[in-house]
Every structure is written in structure tokens, then in C-alpha cells.
Write a structure and sequence with these properties.
heterodimer; A: alpha+beta; two-stranded antiparallel sheet; 11 helices; about 45% helix; B: about 160 residues; alpha+beta; Cytidine Deaminase, domain 2; binds zinc ion
Chain lengths: ~325, ~160
């Protein structure tokens, strides 16, 4: 039996809607707010207002990976070095949360993975510490330097001054994701990444999807559009540059090594070939979230009324 | 008679009495086309539509290949049915196809689309019954205007 690829993808997207995991989403928001309050209490006037920069803030979240990233912007004089900042924030979070969460150092963030609660829910929040470049400059342009704790693509471990602007990053992706087809393709790529344990960061997938829509005339149904983006990645990823909307001197393409880019291109190539061979194979790469299988649309079909009240049918000609 | 639309999961029921009435009225005008509106109700879960009666038009024009249903007096009659218990509402249209199959013509499809989108019509999915009539027998085709398409029901019994 052939699979209707667009129908399947719609179902995949539908099953990954964040509203379908409202309770878990609420818990993420609560934890994020709690961590934010704890940081503000600890650092007071040494920091600016922490804010969420993850997929949820960018409207590209899926319910199997909420991507809650809490950016913690510090004042220049809060720490002597970025490394000191990174370690201090880690130590604080570890001290505060280690009896309810695994707290670990990641590439530029500190990951908190809370132990499963009575509903089996696991809340994950990444805290991204950053420091303004010069005293009081953040207020003017929202730029901060991040600390690269472990190698990030071609950016070496221990790099100081990875300058960026998370607020500009959020609004750039959010603005592009207002277009439904861009948002859908970003979400589908994230679903593929999570389900298949793939490398690229969400931000990388967001930017390359946006670029595909910029460079190519992408039209048609959901599968046509996804196919065009997969082909774009296959053909362009090895040489593409993806300027960071938070700092055009950063190339987000550098967050993958050449080998990782080549693997990604091959992944796209094989995926496209296998789906071309047999449409059923689309289900191997993009799976419906089994916790929220698509209700058969039939359940929703009804004899609807547009409004209450008496109809006055118009004179009508039949043939 | 019971109809089911497998692709969308909605049913339509119409009693033999009503069908007989449509045939009787259709025959009176045969071999010209004729028709009227259908009144009935929806089940509580809105998955079933039950045709209870027809209202014949006070004014109409017809020929062998066309039928134009006027609207005089219909709104008044529908108001009365709306106020009675149990309430009956406008649920759609019917007309005959003398000596031909009960398949909707392009004009019929256009007509149903316009009705569904008419501001005076409060239901979203009007039903269309077409009665194919010849001098000795009849066939009934049932259709539903649903999300900009005219979908055929399958007869169940
Ligand atoms: Zn007709």
C-alpha cells in the first residue's frame, strides 16, 4: 500500500503539537521561571533579566523536545573571565538543583535534567550564561559573549568571546517561522533529528530551512516543500554558510565539522532515495508520536451549523 | 432509507413516507424537473441527519433539464418549524432528473456551493437529494456539500 506522504506528514506534525503535552509544557514553564528567580536572587544587580531563547520562544517547538534555553546575561564586572562565569553558574545550579536534577556542563550551556515526576514527566532546561562585552553595553544592543566549554563543531573548546545576540536570534527565527511552510519544515527536521539521534543543533536546522526558502522557489504540498528543503540540504550543506542573525561574523554552519556536514548530506540523499523507492519508507524517517496518534479525522466531522437560527435559503437554479 | 458517507463518517436517514412524497410530487411534474427543500434535524452528536419532510416551493420555473426553486414563503414556513417542538430545520434540497441518472450536474454543484456559502443559510453542510425518475421506476442519489466538495453517500439498506 502506498502512503500518502503529505497526509502522513500532517499526522506527524499534528502528533507533535506542543498543546498535546500541555501538562509537560506547563511544568517546563514553571521550572524555567523557578530557575530564573533563583539566578536573580543569587546574582541580583550583577545580571540582567534572564529570558527563554529556545524553540518555544521561536514558535518551532515539538512536544518531544521543548528546547527550553534560559539565557542568563551578566554584567561585565560580574566575573573576571567567561570561564569563571561559566563555572560559577554551573556550581551554583549544581548546588541548588543536584538533589532533584542531573546538572551537567554542555557546549555553551549548563543542562538541567530534572528527575521524572509522578507522571513520568522529565523537564529539561538549559541555562546559557553570557556576559556583556563592556560595562552597561548590553542595555544598548543585547550583545553578549558566551563561553565555549567543549568543542562546538569547528569552534574549539575554551574559546572565549563567542559574541552573539540571542534576542536577535529569537526574533529572526520567529519572524521567518510565521510562514507556516517554514515552520512546518523546521519542525519536521527537528522530529527527524530527535527520532534518529542526529547531530545538528536545532538552530542550525532552523537557519538552513530559512535559507532554503530564501534561495529556492518552494511550493506545492507539505511533502513537495519538505522534499525541496531536504534536497537543498543534500546539495548545499557541505559548502553553505549560515550567518548567525545575532552576529554576522559567526557562521552557524561551523557548529558542524566537515565530516558531520558530509554525513548530513548523505542522510538526506539516502532518505530521499528510499522515500522515492517506496512511499511507505517516509514512516521510517518521520514517525507519528505514539503518545498522540492521529485521531482519524472522521471523528471530527460533523453536520455543523454556522450559527444558531432559522435558514432562509436563496432562490436557486438546478440542472 | 439509510445512507452513509464512508469518507467522512456521516449518516443520512430518510423515511419511506418522505421518499414516497418526493416521488409523488416529482411524478406530478414529469417529464419536467421539480423539487423543493428538505427539513429535518441533526442527532445530538451531529453525526446523523434525519430528513423529516419536504416543503414545496410556492413559486418555481422548470423544464426537462432545469429547475429553479423560488424562495417565496420559505423563510416564513421555516420559522414556524423552528419554533415547534420538536424543532425542524432546513437541511437541504431535492429535485428530479426526469429520464436520467441521479448524478449532480455542474449547475447542481454550483448551486450547492452557493447555498452552503449563503449568509441566509445557517447550516454548513446542506444535503442534496436527486431523484432519477422514469415512467416506471426511480433511483435516489444523496449528496452532502462538505468543506467545498459535493460528496456522495452510499445507500445502506
Ligand atoms: Zn440536477
Amino acid at each position: 500500500m502506498a502512503t500518502d506522504k503529505t497526509k502522513h506528514l500532517k499526522c506527524v506534525l499534528d502528533s507533535h503539537k506542543i498543546q498535546k503535552e500541555q501538562a509537560l509544557l506547563d511544568k517546563h514553564i514553571t521550572k524555567k521561571d523557578e530557575i530564573k528567580a533563583a539566578l536573580k536572587e543569587e546574582y541580583g544587580s550583577k545580571m540582567y533579566e534572564p529570558f527563554n531563547s529556545g524553540s518555544y520562544a521561536k514558535h518551532t517547538a515539538i512536544n518531544t523536545k521543548f528546547d527550553f534555553d534560559l539565557v542568563a546575561p551578566y554584567k561585565r564586572d560580574a566575573f573576571d573571565t567567561l570561564k569563571e562565569m561559566y563555572n560559577a553558574v554551573h556550581d551554583f545550579l549544581h548546588k541548588k538543583y543536584s538533589d532533584e536534577a542531573t546538572v551537567k556542563k554542555q557546549k555553551v550551556s549548563i543542562g538541567l535534567e530534572f528527575f521524572a515526576d509522578e507522571d513520568g514527566h522529565v523537564v529539561k532546561v538549559d541555562v546559557v550564561p553570557g556576559r556583556e562585552l563592556n560595562q552597561d553595553q548590553y542595555k544598548d544592543d543585547n550583545n553578549i559573549n558566551l563561553y565555549v566549554h567543549s568543542q562546538l563543531g569547528t569552534i574549539p573548546e575554551g574559546s572565549e568571546r563567542l559574541k552573539t545576540n540571542p534576542k536577535a536570534q529569537i526574533s529572526n527565527v520567529k519572524d521567518h517561522a510565521e510562514k507556516e511552510s517554514v515552520r512546518h519544515d523546521i519542525k519536521l527536521l527537528k522530529i527527524w533529528k530527535v527520532q534518529n539521534g542526529k547531530k545538528p543543533k536545532s538552530f542550525f536546522l532552523e537557519l538552513i530551512t530559512i535559507k532554503a526558502f530564501d534561495k529556492k522557489d518552494i511550493t506545492g504540498d507539505l511533502w513537495d516543500k519538505l522534499k525541496a528543503v531536504l534536497e537543498f540540504i543534500r546539495d548545499e550543506v557541505k559548502t553553505i554558510s549560515l550567518p548567525d542573525p545575532g552576529n554576522s561574523n559567526n557562521d552557524v554552519a561551523d557548529t558542524l565539522t566537515d565530516v558531520e556536514k558530509s554525513d548530513l548530506s548523505d542522510d538526506m540523499k539516502y532518505m530521499l532515495e528510499r522515500i522515492e523507492e517506496n512511499s511507505d519508507n517516509i514512516k521510517l524517517y518521520f514517525k507519528v508520536n505514539p503518545d498522540h496518534p492521529c485521531e482519524d479525522k472522521m471523528e471530527e466531522n460533523k453536520y455543523n451549523v454556522k450559527r444558531e437560527g432559522v435558514s432562509a435559503p436563496p432562490a436557486t437554479r438546478f440542472g | 432509507m439509510k445512507f452513509f458517507c464512508a469518507t467522512i463518517g456521516l449518516t443520512l436517514s430518510i423515511s419511506e413516507t418522505v421518499v414516497s412524497k418526493l416521488i409523488l410530487e416529482g411524478r406530478k411534474h414529469y417529464p419536467k424537473e421539480y423539487g423543493g427543500i428538505l427539513v429535518g434535524r441533526y442527532s445530538d452528536d451531529s453525526k446523523a441527519c434525519i430528513v423529516e419532510d419536504t416543503i414545496l416551493p410556492q413559486n418555481h420555473k422548470s423544464s426537462r433539464y432545469a429547475f429553479e426553486r423560488g424562495k417565496e414563503g420559505l423563510a416564513q414556513k421555516l420559522s414556524e418549524l423552528y419554533e415547534q417542538t420538536p424543532r425542524l430545520i432546513y437541511i437541504g434540497e431535492w429535485h428530479t432528473h426526469p429520464d436520467s441518472a441521479p448524478f449532480p450536474s455542474a449547475t447542481d454543484k454550483q448551486a450547492m456551493l452557493q447555498i452552503a456559502n449563503d449568509n441566509g443559510v445557517t447550516i454548513a453542510s446542506p444535503v442534496l437529494l436527486i431523484l432519477g425518475l422514469n415512467s416506471t421506476s426511480y433511483t435516489l442519489g444523496a449528496y452532502l456539500q462538505f468543506q467545498n466538495q459535493l460528496i456522495r453517500y452510499e445507500q445502506q439498506d
